[in-house]
Amino acid sequence: MKRWVKIGIAGGLALGAIKLFKMKTISEKVVSNLSNPRIHKVDLKGMAFRTEIQIQNPTKNSMNITKPVVTITTNGKYITSTSPSQKIFTIQPLTTTNIDTIEILIGWTTLAGYISGVVGKASSIIAAFKNKDLKSIAASLAIPMEMKFSLYANGIFYESDAEKIM
């Protein structure tokens, strides 16, 4: 009986070591980034941002990730984020995977706390709004915004670096 227990323990340790080696290989070689972060629309509710997340897996191992939580900050200060989701995506080996389009709405009341001198810029914001020129609206607001995402990959937490969107 002792012999079978030893074999079982050795087998469990070997499988654990193989799994750790695969995760280490994936973590060193997988490249993830925001794909096409953009201002989607501006209306009376606020500004809507959209982005996709692209994950490139050049390894021969697959991995499972949860749907990422995307967070928007300004100068490192939290503004808003998406709700966490338990949706699971399988990242296949030797492929590039795009995660669903993620949309985040930031209301004008939230933005008002970060915008200095909005009243003085109102005319340029309204003119850009009428012309549906989203880049001019963002330039008029002059709020530096960054976007980052976090997810779980094979049960291990990962957070990307912040990427400037405005």
TL;DR?
This protein has 166 residues and is of the alpha+beta class. The chain is built from 4 helices and 10 strands, in the order H-E-E-E-E-E-E-E-H-H-H-E-E-E. The protein is elongated and about 80 Å long.
Q: What does the secondary structure layout of this molecule look like, with pairings?
A:
Elements: H1 2-29, E1 31-42, E2 46-57, E3 63-66, E4 69-74, E5 77-81, E6 88-91, E7 95-107, H2 108-112, H3 118-130, H4 134-141, E8 146-153, E9 156-159, E10 163-164
Helix pairs in contact: 3-4
Rg estimate, integer Å: 22 Å
Number of strands: 10
Number of domains: 1
- Shape annotation: elongated
Strand content: 35-45%
Q: What percentage of residues falls in helices of 4 or more residues?
A: 25-40%
CATH superfamily label: Immunoglobulins
Number of helices, where a helix is a run of at least 4 consecutive DSSP H or I residues: 4
Stretches where pLDDT is under 50 for at least 5 consecutive residues are none
CATH architecture descriptor text: Sandwich
* CATH class category label: Mainly Beta
CATH topology: Immunoglobulin-like
Q: Which secondary-structure class do the elements indicate?
A: alpha+beta
Could you tell me the mean pLDDT? 78
Q: Report the sheet with the most strands, covering strand number, pairing sense and barrel closure.
A: 5 strands, antiparallel
Q: Cα distance, first to last residue?
A: 66 Å
